[in-house]
Amino acid sequence: MADTGQTTTDPVAGSGRPLGAVIAALEARYDPALAEPWDAVGLVCGDREEVVRSVLFAVDPTAAVVDEAIALGADLLVTHHPLLLTPVHGVPADHPQGRLVHRLIRSGVALFAAHTNADRAADHGVNDALAAVLGLVDPVPLEPAATPGAGLGRIGELPETRTLQQFAEQVAAALPATPGGVRVVGDPGRLVRTVAVCGGSGGSLLAAAAEAGADVFLTSDVKHHPAVDAAEVAGPALCDVAHYASEWPWLPVAADLLHRDLGGQVRVTVSSRRTDPWTFRVGVAPDR
After folding, report:
1. Three-class SS state of 135
2. Residue 81 among known ligand-binding residues
3. Is 80 annotated in some ligand binding site?
4. Taking CA atoms, which of 116, 178, 196, 247 is between 20 and 30 Å from 59?
């Protein structure tokens, strides 16, 4: 199981950078132009002139994560998922998202989101981090973008052939544990070597994974009918993990990168909060 405990780097004494400079460093790595047209990335709230000395990274901007940011004295909260993904006409304090915006502003915490631009980013994005934590060799985008090395998903090779059962156990050990665990479509004894991955809801890339010759495709939120089809036709086996778990490996990568890009002048911390929304499960059927 991946360690999701809080990790922190110390800043250079008496240092810090303006929020605008921190945002520029983030956007240099996670270009907003890579985001989907429907996405809502970038600065949600905060003053670009204010000095940032401490940054907290998390997958989701939940109430618990906002509490953590305030308790830590963070000046900036960077999340993968946007707080305001759909258009809104106001953020009153009696609205769930509005309440968080008010708490952040009152506490002097800025909020920034890197979503589908971080998914597509080359080298240090969500999908490269997921491929790396699984040990894939020479991963390349499954659906390339115009920018070299960028694109959705990744496909690469395991260092050695494994059974599907062994690969699923490797996934469970590498990613944060969640009540949903790792769900698998396929024969446990099937041999796998070529692995396609897509952090988050990547079911739309199943055909691309099959066309690329993947033995197994790991993603999240796979719908029932594509999973049934995958069990009935030739193509990759499926590993379905929690959405949160598939994107968590990006956090320490992004945090370390920002720390280094800013010359160690900003303290970075990875959230210790598990923001997977599922809390427990009952009535689990035995494996078949």
Report:
1. coil
2. yes
3. yes
4. 196
